[in-house]
Structures
1.
Amino acid sequence: MLTLYSMQLSANSYKVRLLLSWLGRRFELVEVDVLSGGHRTPEFLAANPTGQVPMLVLTDGRHLPESGAILHYLAEGTPLLPAERFARAEVLRWMFFEQHSHDPFIGQARWWLSLVRGGRELKRNLLEEWEDRGYQALRVMDTQLSSHPYFAGDARSIADIALYANTHLAHEGDFDLAPFPAVRAWLARLEAESGHVPITWTPQKVAAAQPA
Ligand SMILES: N[C@@H](CCC(=O)N[C@@H](CS)C(=O)NCC(=O)O)C(=O)O
């Protein structure tokens, strides 16, 4: 069975849990508490040198970190990752946008302002940049979603999962989604889809961290 090393409150980990739920795939979940150093053990670093979650362990024992790579791997052969060349490139376009223009601002703001004790003070010098660049990303998203129901067109894809994870929690990083009606409608659309689960969802009892 697939095993996912994940932290429950990590939005990057949630992307993979959400996709596995959409796909109805069974998996084992191993909780790695990044906030108390669970990702810095020699065992975890040997399995994933970046020391980050999520990390997927395949049934043959191979390890795959990076949420975008994991989504891409799991969605292969499903409508969530189109086979047609341009449609697939559009999905990747929005996934690269998420990693470069969204997560570093909206994701980081939520992580430090809502999950790390004292984070606001520690990251005081970055707050203005996070706010500017985060709202810039939300404007781009709202423009795209004003003319498309989903990021890569008429059907949902893994690009929607990549962008949903931190956007629906943007308020935890001090962002206000009120000025972005198309983004809010898209969040509601995804939440109404079959297979949707919240970030708190677990498929089964969470085991202690023990990288394979
Ligand atoms: N680009 C990576 C980022 C993963 C990431 O930042 N994970 C966070 C939790 S959301 C983490 O493990 N942080 C611990 C660290 O960077 O030391 C991905 O998309 O998977």
2.
Amino acid sequence: MYILVSENFIAGLTTAPQPEGRLYGEYLPGEDVARFWEETTRPAQALGWWRQGHEPEWPEGAGEPEEGQFLALILGQEITFYRREQGRWQPQPHEVMNLYTDFGSRQQGLFDLKLLAGKRVAIVGLGSGGSLVAAQLAKAGVGHFELFDFDRLGSGNISRHLCGLRDLGRLKVAAVKDALENTNPFVEVNTYPYDITRHLSEVEIILAGCDLVVGAADSEVAKGEINRLAVRLRKPAVYGAVYDMGYGGDIFRYQPPAGACYACFKESTRDIFQDAPRAEVLDYGKIAPQPALEMDVTIIGSLVARVVLAELLAGDPLSQLERLPANWVIWGNRPWEGWIFDEPLQSRFVEISRDPTCPVCQHDLFIQEKLGLAPDEAARQAAALLASLENKRPPEPAS
Ligand SMILES: [Zn+2]
């Protein structure tokens, strides 16, 4: 018999106003383990009773104790467990854990855990890439998530997704939320099971409260909207992509206010992808609905998470994570003749410059160039045009 109990669970019983009560926990008979902790996301079972006292006495009114039931005695700040075996109360050893102090213990000294626990990250798209990034960030200690995805988990997703067979048919946002809560006892997760392109004003309000946005959607339309919002709100954004067949992938980082945005990046890398692996079917930005090994996708997802962490910790003097030397990292899993990598597992850093005529981050210059008007004047003329159209609207039919 192995009993695991959390400090907070014990504190809950030692400070309870009543002297006894039902004992809730989880018992796994096949492994002969009982677990008692307040943060469990599984439905707790009534495993017996707890009471204040010295002697293992079953509470009056609890009926006859059954074989296998538990009794927890509370004396001061201490807890002692007993189990009913062959008609007698047998004392059982237990181990105390503290989820909250133990959680960050393996990352002590790498960065300021408290700083990371206060950060809020939005992730748009929870396919194999986005779900993995979410999990890595939660494990590192990021405290708050805003998750967007309208899709459900299908059987084709399982081989490369964070979630498994037990989550088939579930909304990806709900399944990933459960997975994050299963790894980080502090985490707070909000979920939005919709297409962001249809809820832009709501998404803008949510992103305004975030420290960073991860663009892991598999549609370029969605990525374009994320970019527009990130630029307008001046939020850092990180985009990951896996190339066809998992030959490699890349990570692009937008740093406001002066960095090249995702639209600049798309424009200036258009030619580079002419010779990319199977360029004719390469759908830039797709986190691999095409065949790709999970391990090839995982590397890119881990790199995205790493770039995100380095950005979140940019103001932390303790951080051991270096920011990337450039805003675009290309990673090659396997070589591809005639393309940039001739050996496996190589990387390149490239600094993408701002496109001086970018319609997103150089909006004013773009207007000036395309219309030959100052932005204020263009806006005034547009408003006047709209107003004149408004006046010409046909009258509402009388009801
Ligand atoms: Zn731009």
